[in-house]
């Protein structure tokens, strides 16, 4: 499922562009400038960096944001085909809060340890690139990191358990990679809200029951090999808006589930081994806009009332013995 950017993402950009005021025009810290020129030369002075010239102030260069004192706080490279790897020199921008490499198909290599030096980094987006290798455990040393987006790359290996120690992390998106292995037992321990998107990987095993106490706004585990119980991701009173467990091997009794009634918008459970029946309590979910339980082992009458009658038969097809509108009468 694609969806709107997360709240933290939006807040970040608000913060970002409001601090990118003319106050920094004409400014440039000389150490930051030196690091940026190293980055330019690591990319063989590609045309993308044409505005990065030694005789101009680095806060005026394209793709750079500075604070009022002329320190570089944002570097965002996107939408180009220059080749290269993520340069170690990014680690020499100590005030950096936001780092983006997006839609760079010829960006290869691994995520360099130099990134762990960025003590102020809050936002890291490396997406739609050919970056490969592991999701590095050293990312957990970034104490300010709130938003981590490594989606649409060629990353492999397991999700490092150390990520559970990153104290500020609330949003993780590593969808569309080649991750394998289990979920780390503890993630988002102290987050007041959490976003987890891991769709289209080869992850497996059971979801740790400790995830039952995480305040997920979004959890997307679709198109992996997860199995076992996931009922604890649901629950009355939770803030969840989207729960997508589709195309896995989850096997649990849906009868036992109580749906978060306040903010829930999307529930996608299609292609699993879920049994039992659809609880009547689903009719209390006032905002439900997407509900798909097709290709499971459900049985019994589809609850009437609430919003379930908005969904067509394709949302209920291929179960053991579900019946009632929009399927044939019981
Ligand atoms: C991560 O990046 C991808 C690709 O740009 C985007 O579609 C997705 O919404 C982002 N995830 C989050 C949680 O913001
Ligand atoms: C860049 O400019 C500085 C002075 O502003 C000068 O010392 C340095 O040699 C220049 N570097 C290059 C590569 O031209
Ligand atoms: C992704 O990684 C695999 C090895 O894991 C490699 O064979 C493949 O060429 C890589 N693809 C891209 C687009 O980098
Ligand atoms: C979570 O909070 C507890 C108590 O406030 C604290 O002891 C612990 O170190 C925190 N854990 C993380 C990962 O920040
Ligand atoms: C529900 O899932 C089934 C199986 O993947 C799919 O054919 C159907 O189009 C889905 N319905 C909606 C509304 O997405």
UniProtKB/TrEMBL annotation:
Residues 1-25 form the signal peptide. PANTHER family: POLYGALACTURONASE INHIBITOR 1 (PTHR48059), POLYGALACTURONASE INHIBITOR 1-RELATED (PTHR48059:SF4). InterPro entries: Leu-rich_rpt (IPR001611), LRR_dom_sf (IPR032675), LRR_N_plant-typ (IPR013210), PGIP (IPR051848). Keywords: Leucine-rich repeat, Repeat, Signal. Pfam families: LRR_8 (PF13855), LRRNT_2 (PF08263). It comes from the Eukaryota. Residues 30-67 form the Leucine-rich repeat-containing N-terminal plant-type domain. It comes from Canna indica (Indian-shot). Transmembrane segments: none annotated. This is Polygalacturonase inhibitor-like. It is found in: Cell envelope. Belongs to the polygalacturonase-inhibiting protein family. The lineage of its organism: Eukaryota, Viridiplantae, Streptophyta, Embryophyta, Tracheophyta.
């Amino acid at each position: 499922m694609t969806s709107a950017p997360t709240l933290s993402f939006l807040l970040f950009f608000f913060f970002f562009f409001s601090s990118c005021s003319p106050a920094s025009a004409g400014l440039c810290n000389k150490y930051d400038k030196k690091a940026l020129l190293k980055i330019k030369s690591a990319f063989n002075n590609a045309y993308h960096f044409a505005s990065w010239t030694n005789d101009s102030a680095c806060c005026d260069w394209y793709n750079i944001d500075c604070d009022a004192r002329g320190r570089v706080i944002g570097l965002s490279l996107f939408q180009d085909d220059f080749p290269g790897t993520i340069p170690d020199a990014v680690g020499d921008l100590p005030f950096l809060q936001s780092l983006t490499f997006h839609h760079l198909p010829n960006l290869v290599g691994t995520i360099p340890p130099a990134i762990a030096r960025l003590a102020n980094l809050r936002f890291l987006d490396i997406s739609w690139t050919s970056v490969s290798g592991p999701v590095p455990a050293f990312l957990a040393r970034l104490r300010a990191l709130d938003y981590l987006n490594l989606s649409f790359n060629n990353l492999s290996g397991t999700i490092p358990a150390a990520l559970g120690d990153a104290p500020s992390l609330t949003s993780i998106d590593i969808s569309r990679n080649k991750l394998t292995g289990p979920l780390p037992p503890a993630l988002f321990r102290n987050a007041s809200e959490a976003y987890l998107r891991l769709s289209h990987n080869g992850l497996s095993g059971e979801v740790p029951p400790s995830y039952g106490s995480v305040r997920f706004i979004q959890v997307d585990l679709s198109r992996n090999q997860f199995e076992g119980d996931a009922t604890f991701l649901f629950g009355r009173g939770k803030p969840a808006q989207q729960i997508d467990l589709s195309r896995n091997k989850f096997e649990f009794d849906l009868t036992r589930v109580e749906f978060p009634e306040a903010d829930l918008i999307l529930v996608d459970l299609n292609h699993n081994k879920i049994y039992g029946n659809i609880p009547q309590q689903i009719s209390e979910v006032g905002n439900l806009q997407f509900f798909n339980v097709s290709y499971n082992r459900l049985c019994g009458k589809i609850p009437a009332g609430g919003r379930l009658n908005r969904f067509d038969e394709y949302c209920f097809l291929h179960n053991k013995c579900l019946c009632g509108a929009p399927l044939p009468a019981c």
